Amino acid sequence: MTIKVALSGAAGNIGYALLPLISSGYIFGSKAVELRLLEIPEAIGSLAGTKMELVDCSFPCLTDVVITSDPLVAFNNADVIILVGGMPRRKGMARKDLIQANTKIFSSMGRAIDEVASSDVKVLVVANPANTNCLVALTEASRIPTKNFCALSYLDHQRAKGQIAKRLGVPTNSIKNVTIWGNHSESQYPDALSCGYCVDKDGKNVPLSDLLADDKGWANNEFITSVQNRGKAVIEARGLSSALSAAQATADCLKIWLVTGTKAGEIISMAVYNDQGYYGVRDGIVFSFPCECRNGEWFVKEGLQLSEFSKNKLNITEEELLEEMAAAQELIGSSPMKIRSVSMSTCSSVASLATAATESDMSVYLTSRM
Ligand code: LMR
Fold first, then answer.
1. In this predicted model, what pLDDT tens digit does every residue of 170-190 receive, in sequence order?
2. Superfamily holding 2-151+340-366
3. Rounded to the nearest whole angstrom, what is the distance from the C-alpha of residue 75 to the centroid of ligand 1?
4. β-strands 122-125, 149-151: how paired?
Protein backbone atom coordinates (compact mmCIF):
# COMPACT_ATOMS: atom_id res chain seq x y z
CA MET A 1 0.00 0.00 0.00
CA THR A 2 1.26 3.48 -0.88
CA ILE A 3 0.95 6.13 1.84
CA LYS A 4 -0.33 9.40 0.43
CA VAL A 5 1.29 12.24 2.36
CA ALA A 6 0.20 15.86 1.80
CA LEU A 7 2.35 18.75 3.01
CA SER A 8 1.09 22.34 3.02
CA GLY A 9 3.66 25.14 2.94
CA ALA A 10 5.93 22.69 1.16
CA ALA A 11 8.21 25.37 -0.31
CA GLY A 12 9.07 26.81 3.10
CA ASN A 13 12.16 26.12 5.17
CA ILE A 14 10.43 23.55 7.36
CA GLY A 15 9.09 21.83 4.25
CA TYR A 16 12.54 21.71 2.70
CA ALA A 17 14.02 20.12 5.83
CA LEU A 18 11.07 17.74 6.22
CA LEU A 19 10.84 16.37 2.70
CA PRO A 20 13.91 14.09 2.95
CA LEU A 21 12.64 12.74 6.27
CA ILE A 22 9.32 11.80 4.67
CA SER A 23 10.82 10.48 1.45
CA SER A 24 13.80 8.53 2.75
CA GLY A 25 11.89 6.05 4.90
CA TYR A 26 12.87 7.78 8.16
CA ILE A 27 9.19 8.00 9.17
CA PHE A 28 7.39 5.25 7.29
CA GLY A 29 10.17 2.69 6.89
CA SER A 30 10.08 0.73 3.65
CA LYS A 31 6.47 1.68 2.80
CA ALA A 32 5.94 3.40 -0.56
CA VAL A 33 5.17 7.11 -0.24
CA GLU A 34 3.37 9.43 -2.67
CA LEU A 35 3.94 13.12 -1.90
CA ARG A 36 1.47 15.90 -2.51
CA LEU A 37 3.09 19.32 -2.13
CA LEU A 38 0.66 22.17 -1.55
CA GLU A 39 1.66 25.79 -2.01
CA ILE A 40 0.33 29.16 -3.07
CA PRO A 41 0.61 29.67 -6.84
CA GLU A 42 3.60 32.04 -6.41
CA ALA A 43 5.68 29.28 -4.83
CA ILE A 44 4.82 26.51 -7.26
CA GLY A 45 7.82 27.38 -9.48
CA SER A 46 10.28 26.83 -6.67
CA LEU A 47 8.59 23.53 -5.81
CA ALA A 48 9.33 22.34 -9.33
CA GLY A 49 13.01 22.65 -8.41
CA THR A 50 12.45 20.78 -5.15
CA LYS A 51 10.70 18.02 -7.09
CA MET A 52 13.77 17.70 -9.35
CA GLU A 53 15.92 17.36 -6.26
CA LEU A 54 13.64 14.70 -4.79
CA VAL A 55 13.91 12.73 -8.02
CA ASP A 56 17.69 13.19 -7.96
CA CYS A 57 17.86 11.78 -4.44
CA SER A 58 16.61 8.43 -5.83
CA PHE A 59 14.69 7.64 -2.67
CA PRO A 60 13.65 4.02 -3.19
CA CYS A 61 10.23 4.39 -1.54
CA LEU A 62 9.14 7.63 -3.18
CA THR A 63 6.70 6.71 -5.95
CA ASP A 64 5.35 10.11 -7.06
CA VAL A 65 5.47 13.83 -6.28
CA VAL A 66 2.42 15.95 -7.07
CA ILE A 67 2.68 19.76 -6.90
CA THR A 68 -0.51 21.74 -6.53
CA SER A 69 -2.05 24.90 -5.13
CA ASP A 70 -5.43 23.19 -4.76
CA PRO A 71 -6.03 21.62 -1.34
CA LEU A 72 -8.70 19.36 -2.83
CA VAL A 73 -6.04 17.82 -5.07
CA ALA A 74 -3.42 17.64 -2.32
CA PHE A 75 -5.75 16.09 0.25
CA ASN A 76 -7.64 13.74 -2.06
CA ASN A 77 -7.65 10.35 -0.28
CA ALA A 78 -4.63 11.51 1.72
CA ASP A 79 -3.55 9.24 4.57
CA VAL A 80 -1.34 11.77 6.33
CA ILE A 81 -1.60 15.56 6.14
CA ILE A 82 1.06 17.85 7.60
CA LEU A 83 -0.08 21.46 7.85
CA VAL A 84 2.94 23.75 7.88
CA GLY A 85 1.56 26.45 5.57
CA GLY A 86 0.53 29.68 7.25
CA MET A 87 1.83 33.12 8.02
CA PRO A 88 5.03 32.67 10.07
CA ARG A 89 5.96 34.60 13.19
CA ARG A 90 8.46 37.40 12.81
CA LYS A 91 10.64 39.18 15.33
CA GLY A 92 8.56 40.95 17.96
CA MET A 93 5.42 38.89 17.36
CA ALA A 94 3.75 36.37 19.66
CA ARG A 95 2.42 33.22 18.01
CA LYS A 96 -1.14 34.25 18.84
CA ASP A 97 -0.66 37.41 16.75
CA LEU A 98 -1.05 35.06 13.79
CA ILE A 99 -4.62 34.12 14.61
CA GLN A 100 -6.04 36.79 12.35
CA ALA A 101 -4.21 35.50 9.28
CA ASN A 102 -4.17 31.80 10.00
CA THR A 103 -7.65 31.01 11.32
CA LYS A 104 -9.18 31.47 7.88
CA ILE A 105 -6.51 29.36 6.29
CA PHE A 106 -7.10 26.55 8.77
CA SER A 107 -10.82 26.83 8.34
CA SER A 108 -10.32 26.25 4.61
CA MET A 109 -7.87 23.42 5.27
CA GLY A 110 -10.37 21.73 7.59
CA ARG A 111 -13.13 21.94 5.04
CA ALA A 112 -10.94 20.54 2.29
CA ILE A 113 -9.90 17.67 4.58
CA ASP A 114 -13.53 17.01 5.36
CA GLU A 115 -14.39 16.93 1.69
CA VAL A 116 -11.74 14.66 0.23
CA ALA A 117 -9.27 13.10 2.68
CA SER A 118 -9.29 9.41 3.60
CA SER A 119 -11.70 8.84 6.49
CA ASP A 120 -8.73 7.48 8.44
CA VAL A 121 -6.46 10.46 7.65
CA LYS A 122 -4.05 11.60 10.36
CA VAL A 123 -3.38 15.33 10.54
CA LEU A 124 -0.46 17.05 12.26
CA VAL A 125 -0.62 20.85 12.56
CA VAL A 126 2.70 22.72 12.73
CA ALA A 127 1.82 26.29 11.68
CA ASN A 128 1.20 28.72 14.53
CA PRO A 129 -0.78 29.22 16.63
CA ALA A 130 -0.63 25.46 16.28
CA ASN A 131 -3.14 24.38 18.95
CA THR A 132 -5.83 26.79 17.83
CA ASN A 133 -5.19 26.16 14.13
CA CYS A 134 -5.65 22.46 14.88
CA LEU A 135 -8.88 23.17 16.75
CA VAL A 136 -10.21 25.20 13.83
CA ALA A 137 -9.28 22.50 11.30
CA LEU A 138 -10.73 19.58 13.26
CA THR A 139 -13.89 21.52 13.96
CA GLU A 140 -14.42 22.07 10.26
CA ALA A 141 -13.56 18.48 9.37
CA SER A 142 -16.53 17.04 11.21
CA ARG A 143 -16.39 13.77 9.21
CA ILE A 144 -12.96 12.93 10.63
CA PRO A 145 -12.61 11.75 14.27
CA THR A 146 -10.96 14.35 16.50
CA LYS A 147 -8.47 11.65 17.57
CA ASN A 148 -6.97 11.84 14.09
CA PHE A 149 -5.62 15.35 14.69
CA CYS A 150 -2.82 16.74 16.76
CA ALA A 151 -0.67 19.86 16.94
CA LEU A 152 3.07 19.81 17.38
CA SER A 153 4.36 20.21 20.92
CA TYR A 154 7.06 17.59 20.46
CA LEU A 155 9.45 20.39 19.43
CA ASP A 156 9.06 21.88 22.93
CA HIS A 157 9.41 18.39 24.41
CA GLN A 158 12.74 17.92 22.67
CA ARG A 159 13.86 21.40 23.69
CA ALA A 160 13.06 20.57 27.31
CA LYS A 161 15.09 17.35 27.13
CA GLY A 162 18.01 19.28 25.68
CA GLN A 163 18.00 21.85 28.49
CA ILE A 164 17.84 19.21 31.24
CA ALA A 165 20.53 17.07 29.66
CA LYS A 166 22.83 20.09 29.47
CA ARG A 167 22.12 20.99 33.08
CA LEU A 168 22.83 17.45 34.32
CA GLY A 169 25.72 16.80 31.93
CA VAL A 170 24.13 13.63 30.52
CA PRO A 171 23.21 12.54 26.97
CA THR A 172 19.94 14.06 25.71
CA ASN A 173 18.47 10.67 25.00
CA SER A 174 18.87 9.54 28.58
CA ILE A 175 16.20 12.08 29.57
CA LYS A 176 12.68 10.64 29.39
CA ASN A 177 9.14 11.75 30.10
CA VAL A 178 9.46 15.48 30.42
CA THR A 179 6.01 16.83 29.67
CA ILE A 180 4.83 19.88 27.80
CA TRP A 181 1.41 20.92 29.05
CA GLY A 182 -0.92 23.27 27.21
CA ASN A 183 -0.25 25.66 24.40
CA HIS A 184 2.70 25.80 22.00
CA SER A 185 3.33 29.34 23.16
CA GLU A 186 5.05 31.27 25.92
CA SER A 187 2.30 30.11 28.31
CA GLN A 188 3.18 26.41 27.91
CA TYR A 189 4.28 24.53 31.01
CA PRO A 190 7.42 22.45 30.46
CA ASP A 191 7.37 20.06 33.38
CA ALA A 192 10.52 18.14 34.29
CA LEU A 193 9.39 16.87 37.63
CA SER A 194 5.95 15.21 37.44
CA CYS A 195 7.13 12.09 35.64
CA GLY A 196 10.54 12.88 34.15
CA TYR A 197 13.44 10.50 34.69
CA CYS A 198 16.98 9.91 33.52
CA VAL A 199 18.32 6.52 32.46
CA ASP A 200 21.71 6.35 34.19
CA LYS A 201 24.86 4.57 32.94
CA ASP A 202 23.73 1.33 34.56
CA GLY A 203 20.33 1.49 32.87
CA LYS A 204 18.52 2.52 36.07
CA ASN A 205 15.67 5.05 35.85
CA VAL A 206 16.35 7.89 38.25
CA PRO A 207 13.50 10.42 38.75
CA LEU A 208 14.39 13.95 37.71
CA SER A 209 12.73 15.10 40.92
CA ASP A 210 15.63 13.35 42.75
CA LEU A 211 18.34 14.53 40.37
CA LEU A 212 17.09 18.11 40.53
CA ALA A 213 16.13 18.03 44.22
CA ASP A 214 18.78 20.64 45.04
CA ASP A 215 18.13 22.55 41.86
CA LYS A 216 14.34 23.09 42.08
CA GLY A 217 14.87 26.84 41.66
CA TRP A 218 16.23 26.18 38.18
CA ALA A 219 13.61 23.53 37.33
CA ASN A 220 10.75 25.81 38.34
CA ASN A 221 12.07 29.02 36.80
CA GLU A 222 14.91 29.28 34.32
CA PHE A 223 14.23 25.86 32.79
CA ILE A 224 10.59 26.74 32.17
CA THR A 225 11.23 30.16 30.68
CA SER A 226 14.07 28.90 28.50
CA VAL A 227 11.79 26.31 26.86
CA GLN A 228 8.86 28.73 26.65
CA ASN A 229 11.05 31.27 24.86
CA ARG A 230 13.20 28.97 22.76
CA GLY A 231 11.30 29.64 19.53
CA LYS A 232 11.70 33.37 20.07
CA ALA A 233 15.42 32.99 20.84
CA VAL A 234 15.89 31.06 17.57
CA ILE A 235 14.07 33.79 15.63
CA GLU A 236 16.23 36.46 17.23
CA ALA A 237 19.44 34.60 16.42
CA ARG A 238 18.55 33.35 12.93
CA GLY A 239 16.28 36.18 11.84
CA LEU A 240 14.00 33.30 10.84
CA SER A 241 12.03 30.85 12.88
CA SER A 242 13.18 27.32 13.58
CA ALA A 243 13.10 24.99 10.61
CA LEU A 244 15.58 22.16 11.09
CA SER A 245 14.43 21.33 14.61
CA ALA A 246 10.76 21.88 13.72
CA ALA A 247 11.06 19.46 10.79
CA GLN A 248 12.87 16.87 12.90
CA ALA A 249 10.26 17.10 15.68
CA THR A 250 7.46 16.81 13.10
CA ALA A 251 9.03 13.68 11.64
CA ASP A 252 9.65 12.13 15.05
CA CYS A 253 6.15 12.91 16.30
CA LEU A 254 4.61 11.27 13.20
CA LYS A 255 6.91 8.29 13.45
CA ILE A 256 6.10 7.64 17.12
CA TRP A 257 2.37 8.34 16.70
CA LEU A 258 1.78 6.39 13.51
CA VAL A 259 4.55 3.84 13.19
CA THR A 260 6.60 2.78 16.21
CA GLY A 261 4.39 3.82 19.14
CA THR A 262 5.99 4.92 22.40
CA LYS A 263 8.37 2.55 24.15
CA ALA A 264 7.23 0.86 27.37
CA GLY A 265 7.32 3.35 30.23
CA GLU A 266 7.77 6.34 27.94
CA ILE A 267 5.50 9.20 26.91
CA ILE A 268 5.72 11.97 24.35
CA SER A 269 4.04 15.36 24.44
CA MET A 270 1.28 15.86 21.87
CA ALA A 271 -1.28 18.64 21.65
CA VAL A 272 -4.58 16.80 21.27
CA TYR A 273 -8.27 17.53 21.41
CA ASN A 274 -9.39 17.33 25.02
CA ASP A 275 -12.83 15.76 24.97
CA GLN A 276 -12.46 14.12 28.39
CA GLY A 277 -11.48 17.04 30.61
CA TYR A 278 -8.12 15.35 31.24
CA TYR A 279 -6.36 16.70 34.36
CA GLY A 280 -9.27 19.05 34.99
CA VAL A 281 -8.52 21.05 31.83
CA ARG A 282 -11.63 22.35 30.16
CA ASP A 283 -12.75 20.19 27.31
CA GLY A 284 -13.10 21.52 23.78
CA ILE A 285 -9.55 22.85 23.35
CA VAL A 286 -6.40 21.36 21.85
CA PHE A 287 -4.00 21.00 24.78
CA SER A 288 -0.60 19.35 25.06
CA PHE A 289 -0.57 16.35 27.39
CA PRO A 290 1.75 13.44 28.13
CA CYS A 291 0.66 10.77 25.65
CA GLU A 292 1.37 7.14 24.97
CA CYS A 293 1.01 5.90 21.41
CA ARG A 294 0.16 2.44 20.14
CA ASN A 295 -1.38 1.05 16.95
CA GLY A 296 -1.46 4.50 15.36
CA GLU A 297 -3.42 6.08 18.21
CA TRP A 298 -2.52 8.38 21.08
CA PHE A 299 -3.78 7.99 24.63
CA VAL A 300 -3.37 10.67 27.29
CA LYS A 301 -1.39 9.23 30.19
CA GLU A 302 -3.64 9.78 33.16
CA GLY A 303 -3.07 9.58 36.88
CA LEU A 304 0.01 11.76 37.32
CA GLN A 305 -0.01 13.58 40.65
CA LEU A 306 0.35 17.30 39.95
CA SER A 307 1.63 19.77 42.56
CA GLU A 308 -0.25 23.02 43.24
CA PHE A 309 2.55 24.77 41.34
CA SER A 310 1.86 22.58 38.29
CA LYS A 311 -1.91 23.01 38.54
CA ASN A 312 -1.47 26.79 38.49
CA LYS A 313 0.72 26.54 35.43
CA LEU A 314 -1.92 24.41 33.67
CA ASN A 315 -4.55 27.04 34.47
CA ILE A 316 -2.46 29.80 32.91
CA THR A 317 -1.96 28.03 29.60
CA GLU A 318 -5.59 26.79 29.56
CA GLU A 319 -6.72 30.40 29.98
CA GLU A 320 -4.67 31.49 26.98
CA LEU A 321 -6.10 28.69 24.83
CA LEU A 322 -9.63 29.70 25.76
CA GLU A 323 -8.83 33.27 24.72
CA GLU A 324 -7.38 32.06 21.42
CA MET A 325 -10.46 29.91 20.85
CA ALA A 326 -12.71 32.92 21.42
CA ALA A 327 -10.65 35.02 18.99
CA ALA A 328 -10.78 32.30 16.33
CA GLN A 329 -14.50 31.84 16.89
CA GLU A 330 -15.05 35.53 16.33
CA LEU A 331 -13.13 35.40 13.05
CA ILE A 332 -15.03 32.40 11.76
CA GLY A 333 -18.26 34.05 12.80
CA SER A 334 -19.69 30.95 14.40
CA SER A 335 -19.49 29.06 17.64
CA PRO A 336 -18.12 25.84 16.26
CA MET A 337 -15.61 24.94 18.90
CA LYS A 338 -18.01 23.30 21.33
CA ILE A 339 -19.61 21.07 18.80
CA ARG A 340 -16.79 18.52 18.69
CA SER A 341 -17.39 17.75 22.35
CA VAL A 342 -20.39 15.67 21.33
CA SER A 343 -19.84 12.02 20.61
CA MET A 344 -18.59 11.18 17.13
CA SER A 345 -21.75 9.28 16.33
CA THR A 346 -23.70 12.52 16.30
CA CYS A 347 -21.11 14.51 14.40
CA SER A 348 -22.21 13.51 10.95
CA SER A 349 -25.54 15.15 11.62
CA VAL A 350 -23.94 18.41 12.70
CA ALA A 351 -24.40 20.98 10.01
CA SER A 352 -21.46 22.61 8.29
CA LEU A 353 -19.93 24.82 10.90
CA ALA A 354 -18.40 27.85 9.39
CA THR A 355 -18.54 30.05 6.39
CA ALA A 356 -17.52 28.47 3.11
CA ALA A 357 -13.98 28.96 1.85
CA THR A 358 -13.70 31.82 -0.55
CA GLU A 359 -11.16 32.52 -3.23
CA SER A 360 -9.85 35.36 -1.12
CA ASP A 361 -9.29 33.03 1.85
CA MET A 362 -6.89 31.10 -0.28
CA SER A 363 -5.12 34.25 -1.34
CA VAL A 364 -4.00 34.67 2.25
CA TYR A 365 -2.75 31.10 2.24
CA LEU A 366 0.82 32.05 2.77
CA THR A 367 3.79 29.83 2.55
CA SER A 368 5.72 29.19 5.70
CA ARG A 369 8.88 30.24 3.86
CA MET A 370 10.79 32.39 6.29
C1 LMR B 1 9.06 27.45 17.22
O2 LMR B 1 8.68 27.16 18.34
O3 LMR B 1 10.26 27.51 16.93
C4 LMR B 1 8.05 27.72 16.14
O5 LMR B 1 6.77 27.62 16.67
C6 LMR B 1 8.26 29.04 15.48
C7 LMR B 1 7.96 30.20 16.40
O8 LMR B 1 7.27 31.11 15.95
O9 LMR B 1 8.44 30.24 17.52
1. 999 999 999 999 999 999 999
2. NAD(P)-binding Rossmann-like Domain (3.40.50.720)
3. 25
4. parallel
